[in-house]
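[Discussion] Sanity-checking designs against the backbone

I'm trying to build intuition for which residues belong where. Below is a C-alpha cell string of 101 positions. I'd appreciate it if someone posts a full sequence so I can compare it with mine line by line.
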C-alpha cells in the first residue's frame, strides 16, 4: 500500500453511526455502521476499516441518505446528503467503540 493511498484511507471514515438501528444491526448481523465520505467506494471503505481497526472485513453495503428538509420560520432549508456504510465483519471479529481494552 502506498503512502498516498493510506492517507486517503484515513479520510474515508468520518464517524461511527450510533443509533437504534445501528445497534440492532450490530447485535443481530455482526455489522458495524459508519458515516463515510460521499465519494468513498466499497473497496476503500473495506481497506480503511481493516487498516484502522485491525479486523477482517467480509463485505460492505452502502446507503446514500438524503438530507431532511427543515424550516425555521418562513425560510425552508435542507440538511446535506450523506453516505453510510454497513460493514460486515468476519466471524470472531469485533470493533469496540467504548474505549475499554
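Best answer:
Here's mine. Compare freely.
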Amino acid at each position: 500500500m502506498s503512502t498516498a493511498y493510506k492517507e486517503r484511507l484515513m479520510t474515508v471514515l468520518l464517524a461511527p453511526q450510533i443509533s437504534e438501528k445501528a445497534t440492532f444491526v450490530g447485535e443481530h448481523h455482526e455489522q458495524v455502521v459508519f458515516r463515510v465520505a460521499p465519494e468513498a467506494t466499497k473497496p476503500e471503505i473495506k481497506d480503511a476499516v481493516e487498516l484502522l481497526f485491525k479486523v477482517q472485513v467480509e463485505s460492505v453495503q452502502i446507503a446514500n441518505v438524503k438530507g431532511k428538509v427543515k424550516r425555521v420560520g418562513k425560510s425552508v432549508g435542507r440538511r446535506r446528503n450523506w453516505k453510510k456504510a454497513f460493514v460486515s465483519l468476519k466471524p470472531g471479529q469485533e470493533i469496540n467503540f467504548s474505549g475499554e481494552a
